[in-house]
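Subject line: Sequence and fold of a protein, written as structure tokens
Body of memo: The sequence and its backbone structure tokens, given next.
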Amino acid sequence: MVKMPLGTEPSKEARMLEQLRKHQGSVLHPNYSAPFHSFEDTLHRLLPYHLYQGTANSSQDYQRVDDEFERVSCQLLKRTQAMLDKYRYLLFAESKQRLGPSAEMVMIDRMFIQEEKVALNQDRILAKERP
């Protein structure tokens, strides 16, 4: 600890460094045998661990994460494309195997015929009213 002459107060930076040293000391040499007495005691004893929970990431770490993300993304895109291709192939194969029209086509044809019948009836009524 740095000794200061009497009457002078340490600077803000010096107080912060001293506080960081205290926190570092409490993290390096924890009092794990004593139980927590209160919420404040718990807070004061555990909070310093958040200051020393890891080191800053380097650009190599970020590059490694980016490379891994790109690799996994490409793999997932290839899988998705393969699944879509297989789905399209199965639809195509199913359409070739059908001998008759599908249920959807039959329903669309019926709706079209019904609309045409209604339109024809309306035309007949108009033709009778206005010859």
